[in-house]
Design a protein that fits this description.
The structure is a single chain. This protein has one domain. Strand 1 and strand 2 form a beta hairpin. With 101 residues, the chain is α+β, with helices and mostly antiparallel strands. It is globular and about 40 Å long. A two-stranded antiparallel sheet has the order 1-2. Keywords: Endonuclease, Hydrolase, Nuclease. This is HNH endonuclease.
């Protein structure tokens, strides 16, 4: 749902307003795979996506917000982070599976 104030950007994953300092542009299809379209996400949401999924997985299976939300670990993260303040940030570690690739 679009915000009534155009200066307020809402994260399509967690649906919380994104403070300007926490705003990251995420290529739904990674640039290295030919992607151009971006969505603004909370920095913490953006980093979690890249901690859990490879560039190839993002391009082939998770190139939409709906597809990302269908991923069980992303969905679990979103359910958790939705209860946090809008400016919440925590360091994210790549999963062992992603680190190996």
């Amino acid at each position: 749902m679009p915000s009534p104030d155009p200066a307020i950007v809402v994260c399509p994953l967690c649906e919380r307003p994104i403070p300007p300092a926490q705003r990251d542009a995420h290529h739904l299809v990674p640039k290295c795979k030919g992607g151009r379209h971006t969505e603004f996400l909370h920095r913490v949401c953006h980093r979690q996506i890249h901690a859990l999924l490879t560039e190839t997985e993002l391009a082939r299976q998770y190139a939409t917000v709906d597809a990302l939300l269908a991923h069980p670990e992303i969905r679990r993260f979103v359910s958790w982070v939705q209860r946090k303040p809008d400016d919440f940030f925590v360091a994210t570690r790549k999963s062992a599976r992603v680190r190996r690739r």
